[in-house]
């Protein structure tokens, strides 16, 4: 995946470029001004653009983002140190996929890019469903979903998921063989899960009912993991377990 960095502080730009290379991305350029970035994009269109909001020159990052979104349909992630409410409101109008507050590390950058890729993939899937004249001929597979694992998307069968853990605005999907960090809030992911398989047991946990091994008064054990069972979800969970 190709990433363009538009940042007028070259030391910061160089560090971002280093992070991107370490994460396996191709950097199309580190450019200090919006006007130069537009010329660059014509010859080297990126998959995602990382833009500093406050750029030197006649055009700032918000105006540049508007052009990239409208003319090239390039997803944008904003980089910012200090943004007042008025600037933030202006930035939202061009529909960025994420904001990264400076200073940030490689992990924060990784998560912002994963979030952007997942949002783009979701938009593409939605457009495909809308435009499909014969949806029954291309019915979606309902026993699996795909998540980004680095630069590739991998298949996860719903049956293979042991449980899901909320980590702020991310979800950690735990299977018997591997864990995946998904850039999506728990509430959004929960709405996509098959209701017959999954049940929330705590604000931070959703479990696959098929993999529950033990139930105690305040905990649920799945494999080697002991998860908290909150009182708010206990009654519904126990009712569901009886029917499995």
What are the SSEs and their pairings?
Layout: E1 2-6, H1 10-22, E2 26-31, H2 34-43, E3 48-52, H3 61-72, E4 76-80, H4 85-93, E5 98-101, H5 106-131, E6 144-149, E7 152-157, E8 161-167, E9 170-175, E10 179-182, H6 186-190, E11 198-202, E12 205-208, E13 214-215, E14 219-222, E15 225-228, H7 231-242
Parallel strand pairs: 1-2, 1-3, 3-4, 4-5
Antiparallel strand pairs: 6-7, 8-9, 8-12, 9-10, 11-12, 13-14, 14-15
Briefly summarize what is shown.
The chain has 244 residues and is of the alpha/beta class. It contains seven helices and 15 strands.
What does this structure look like?
With 244 residues, the chain is α/β, with parallel strands linked by helices. The chain folds into two domains: 2-122, Response regulator (Rossmann fold, 3-Layer(aba) Sandwich); 144-242, Beta Barrel (OB fold (Dihydrolipoamide Acetyltransferase, E2P)). Helices cover 36% and strands 30% of the residues. The chain is built from seven helices and 15 strands. The protein has helices at 10-22, 34-43, 61-72, 85-93, 106-131, 186-190, 231-242; strands at residues 2-6, 26-31, 48-52, 76-80, 98-101, 144-149, 152-157, 161-167, 170-175, 179-182, 198-202, 205-208, 214-215, 219-222, 225-228. The chain has a five-stranded parallel β-sheet with strand order 2-1-3-4-5, with helices on both faces. The relative contact order is 0.08.
Keywords:
single chain, 244 residues, alpha/beta, Rossmann fold, OB fold (Dihydrolipoamide Acetyltransferase, E2P), 2 domains, five-stranded parallel β-sheet, five-stranded antiparallel β-sheet, 15 strands, 30% strand, elongated
